[in-house]
Write a structure and sequence with these properties.
This protein has 197 residues and is an alpha/beta fold. It has one domain: 3-Layer(aba) Sandwich (Rossmann fold), CATH 3.40.50.300. It is 32% helix and 21% strand. It is built from 5 helices and 7 strands, in the order E-E-H-E-E-H-E-H-E-H-E-H. It has a 7-stranded mixed β-sheet, with helices on both faces. It is globular, with a radius of gyration of 15 Å. The N and C termini lie close together (6 Å). It binds guanosine-5'-triphosphate (GTP) and magnesium ion (MG). The site of magnesium ion (MG) has 5 residues, from helix 1.
Length: 197
C-alpha cells in the first residue's frame, strides 16, 4: 500500500521535461477545478503534496509524484478552463494530449468527473481520444459529498449507459469525496492492485 511514501518529482511544462522512468504510471485528468489535486492528496495521505486551489487553472503543468519507487502519479492541468488565455489553453491541451497518447508506462487514466455536473463535452472529447489511442481509463466521480444519494444513483445509471459506448473505459465507476474521505480507500486499493504494490 502506497500511502505516506509520496515525494514530488517535478512539474513538466513541456514534453521534454517528462521524467524518464519505466515505473508504472497513473494519470489524473479532468476539467479544471474538478478536484484532481485534492484526490492525489487524499490518496497519498499527505496534506500538501499537490497544490489545490479555489481558482480553476491552479495546476499549470504535469506534476509527477513518486510513490515509494513503485508507482508514479501524474496530476494533469485541468482542461476546458475558459478563462485562461487561449494560447495557454492550447499549450496545455497539446501537452496533455501528447502525454496521454504517447506514455508507454501509463496503466490507467482516471477521468475525474464532478458529481454535481456529470460528463461534459470536453470530457467526452478526452474519452474519445483515449478510446482511439487504446489507453485504458476509468471514470472517478469527485465531490460526491455535494449531492444526495438519490442524485448519485441517477448519475451513475446515466454514466453506465454512456460508458457502454466507449471501448477503452473501465466498467466500474468510482465515487469519491476527498473532503469527506469517501471512496478513497477502495480507489487506493484498486490502484495498488493494478500496479502490484
Ligand atoms: P486545477 O488544478 O485547477 O485543474 O484543479 P483541480 O482539479 O486540481 O482541483 P483542486 O483539487 O485544486 O480542487 C478544486 C476545489 O474543489 C478546491 O476548492 C477543493 O477544496 C475543492 N474540492 C476538491 N475535492 C473536493 C471534495 O471531495 N468535496 C468538496 N466539497 N470539495 C472538493
Ligand atoms: Mg490541480
Amino acid at each position: 500500500m502506497f500511502a505516506g511514501e509520496c515525494t514530488f518529482m517535478l512539474g513538466a511544462a513541456g514534453l521534454g521535461q517528462i521524467p524518464d522512468t519505466d515505473l508504472p504510471e497513473i494519470a489524473f485528468a479532468g476539467r479544471s477545478n474538478v478536484g484532481k489535486s485534492s484526490l492525489v492528496n487524499a490518496l497519498t495521505g499527505r496534506k500538501a503534496v499537490a497544490r489545490t486551489s479555489h481558482t480553476p487553472g491552479r495546476t499549470q503543468q504535469v506534476n509527477f509524484f513518486d510513490l515509494g519507487a513503485k508507482l508514479i502519479i501524474a496530476d494533469l492541468p485541468g482542461y476546458g478552463f475558459a478563462k485562461a488565455p487561449k494560447d495557454q489553453v492550447a499549450k496545455w491541451t497539446r501537452l496533455v494530449n501528447a502525454y496521454l497518447k504517447g506514455r508507454q508506462q501509463l496503466r490507467r487514466v482516471l477521468v475525474l468527473i464532478d458529481a454535481r455536473h456529470g460528463i461534459k463535452d470536453v470530457d467526452r472529447g478526452i474519452m474519445k481520444m483515449l478510446d482511439g489511442a487504446a489507453v485504458s481509463y476509468q471514470v472517478v466521480l469527485t465531490k460526491t459529498d455535494k449531492i444526495t444519494a438519490g442524485q448519485l444513483e441517477q448519475l451513475m445509471a446515466e454514466i453506465r449507459i454512456e460508458l457502454a459506448g466507449h471501448v477503452a473505459a473501465h466498467p466500474i465507476i468510482r465515487c469519491t469525496s476527498s473532503a469527506k474521505k469517501i471512496g478513497i480507500e477502495d480507489l487506493r486499493a484498486e490502484l495498488a492492485r493494478l500496479v502490484n504494490c
